Amino acid sequence: NAGVTQTPKFRILKIGQSMTLQCTQDMNHNYMYWYRQDPGMGLKLIYYSVGAGITDKGEVPNGYNVSRSTTEDFPLRLELAAPSQTSVYFCASSNGALDYGYTFGSGTRLTVV
Amino acid sequence: EDKVVQSPLSLVVHEGDTVTLNCSYEVTNFRSLLWYKQEKKAPTFLFMLTSSGIEKKSGRLSSILDKKELFSILNITATQTGDSAIYRCAVRSGGGADGLTFGKGTHLIIQP
User: In this complex, is the C-beta atom of B41 within 8 Å of any C-beta atom belonging to chain A?
Assistant: First the structure.
C-alpha cells in the first residue's frame, strides 16, 4: 500500500519557469490537500479538493493552480515560478471522517533561483 | 482567522526526562485537534482529539484536550533519542476548507 506518493522529491526552477508537482493516493480518499512548509513556520494550506472535479482555494493559493480529474490524482501547478515559492510542498489525503488523521506524502523540496 | 499556538518552540532535555508540549487554539467551528510527529520528511499522525478530558495514549505518548480552555497537551514520558523531532499541533475547523491550521511546531531534542 503506497499511501500518498509525491514526485519529484527535489527540483530547482529558474524564475518564470513552470512545473507540476504530482500527487497520487491509492486509499480511495475523497479529500486531498496541498500544503507548503516554510522554515520556522507551520504548514499552510494552498488548495484542497473534496472529490473528483471539485477544488477550492486554501490560505495561500496565489501563484498556484490545481486540478482533480480523478480521485487518485491531485497535481499542483506553478505557472511562473518566483523565489517566494521556494518551500517544501506536502500533499495529503483523508477520508473526511472525524476520527481519521491525514496521510501525508514525503514532500517535494522546491528551490526557485 | 484560525490560530494555533504551540509552546515551547524548542526544548532540549536528557534521555529519560518527561516532557509536556502545549498547544492552544482559536478557531471557528472546532472539529478536532491533531498531533503529528515530523522527523526528516512528512508529518506522521499521532493522535486525533475531539472530546474534552479523554486521554489518548500510545506507548509513552499521551494527549488530552480541554475544549473549554482551548488547549491540548502532548506528554512524552521516559524520553528516548528517537523522540527527537518537531511535534506539530493542528486544528481542523468546520470552515469551507476542511483543511488543518497548523502551529509552528515544537522542536524537541533529546540528548543522550
Answer: yes
Q: Is A82 near chain B, with CB under 8 Å? A: no
Q: pLDDT tens digit string along B59-107?
A: 999 999 999 999 999 999 999 999 999 999 999 886 655 678 889 999 9
Tell me the sheet residues that pair with A11: A110
Which of B44, B50, B90 lies at the smallest CB-CB distance from A98? Answer: B50
Alpha-carbon distance A94 to A89, whole Å?
17
Residue B48: Cβ-neighbour burial (10 angstroms; 0-12, 13-18, 19+): buried
Whether A107 has its CB under 8 Å from any CB of chain B: the answer is yes
- Sheet with strand B19-26: strands edge to edge: B3-7, B19-26, B71-76, B61-66, B56-58
pLDDT at residue A99, as a whole number: 56
